[in-house]
Structures are given as C-alpha cells and as structure tokens.
Amino acid sequence: MNKLISLFCLWIVAANAQGKFSISSSVTQARPGDTISLKISYSASDAAGLQWSLIMPPPLPPAVATASTQAAAAGKAVTCNPAGPICLLIGGVNQVQAGDQALYNVTFPSTAPSGIYIFSLTSTLGVRSSGDPLSVAADVPATVVLLSRFDLNGDGKIDAADQALAISQAVGVTPCGTADFNGDGKCNVVDVQLLILAFTPAPSPARQTPPKKTRGR
After folding, report:
1. How many domains are contained in the chain?
2. For residue 133, is it within any domain?
3. 105 in any annotated domain
4. What residue ranges in the chain does DSSP mark as E strands?
C-alpha cells in the first residue's frame, strides 16, 4: 500500500513538473563589432512547441533565432517577428528533448558604448502535443560586458599597457588584429595615436587673466 502511495506521489510530481527556459552567452566579454552566440535552452521533454520573447538591450536591434540541431531533428523550426522579440518553436507533434532549442547570433555595433548588456527572456510559454498549455518559467538573464575597443588586455581600463600591445601590433612583433582601430586592415602609428587619444585627457582651456585696471590720474 505504501509503495502504491509513493508511486502515486511520484506520478503527481512528474505530472506537475515544469520545464524552465534558460539563456546563455558564448562569451562573458566582447568588444564593439564582435558577434556573440546566445543559446535558448529548455530543461524538460514535455513540450511540442515553445514560445518566448528575447529582450535585447539597447542599442542592439531585434535578432532572429534559428532552431538548434536537436530541435530540427524533432521536426521543429523557429519563426520570429523580425521587428520584435517574439519567437515560436513549433512543428508536428513530437516533443522536444531537454537541451538547446534555438540560437541567436548577435553583433554589437561598432559604435556601441561599453558597459553591461543584459539579455533576458519573457512571455515564456509551452504547449503539449495535445494542445494543452504549459506554464514555463524563465531562468536568470545572460550578461555580457562590452569592453572599449581600446581595452586590448581586457582589464576594464585604457592605459599604457594597452598602448604597449598596440605598438607591438604596429611594429609587427605580434599579428595585426585588435589594434586596427580605424578598420583599414593595417596596424600602424595612426592606430597607436588613436589609442593614446582615448586615454589621454583633453587639455583644459587656458584661463585668461583679465588685465588689471589702472586708476587714471
């Protein structure tokens, strides 16, 4: 009898278990111009279809997702609103398997300001093969720190250490790459000077001393 009760309780728990959406980034740090990958995952194998909205931090435009290899093998495809955050993973009656479901490729504009970029999921929903809805929670957001393009060593500041790395690329000691700040395909003195300007404060305008007034005799 006790065994039957235990089995019944386990069945109740399984029947009411809810999957959870999660989002993860391929990197934790990036620079303007970089493209990162965002993965959308689902923790259960009880849904025939899924829906979510990816909230993109400004100034990033809306992105469009594609189905993961696993989701595509289950006959699923992703359809997103190109002008908005809503995406559907749908197709047939097969249930998805727990794991990665969709992938976004997000490119930071070259003019994107440095700072913390938070990618979060909202409006999460699932549906069973029978058409019954599934309440689905969303896990914590993904966070990416966008560094300044001049922060070559990734320590969060622009200083002489970055200048040394830029010089190394300009003279050919190390391959030209991250220090090509003007995007002309070359690393040279121009790029080094651009970095110097980035961490050298602009001189304050000289204060002019007004001429002394003289008393007339």
Report:
1. 2
2. yes
3. yes
4. 20-25, 29-30, 35-42, 49-55, 66-67, 77-80, 86-90, 99-107, 115-127, 133-135, 137-138, 142-146
Q: Which two tokens stand for residue 216?
A: 């007339």
Same domain, 141 and 169: no
* CA count, 13 A, side-chain hemisphere, 95: 17
Q: Which tokens in the block code for residue 49?
A: 């279809």
pTM: 0.75
- 72-129 pLDDT, tens per residue? 999 999 999 988 899 999 999 999 999 999 999 999 998 899 999 999 999 999 999 9
Residue whose tokens read 């994107």: 112
Residues in the chain: 217
Bin 188: left if φ > 0, else alpha if -120 < ψ < 50, else beta.
Answer: beta
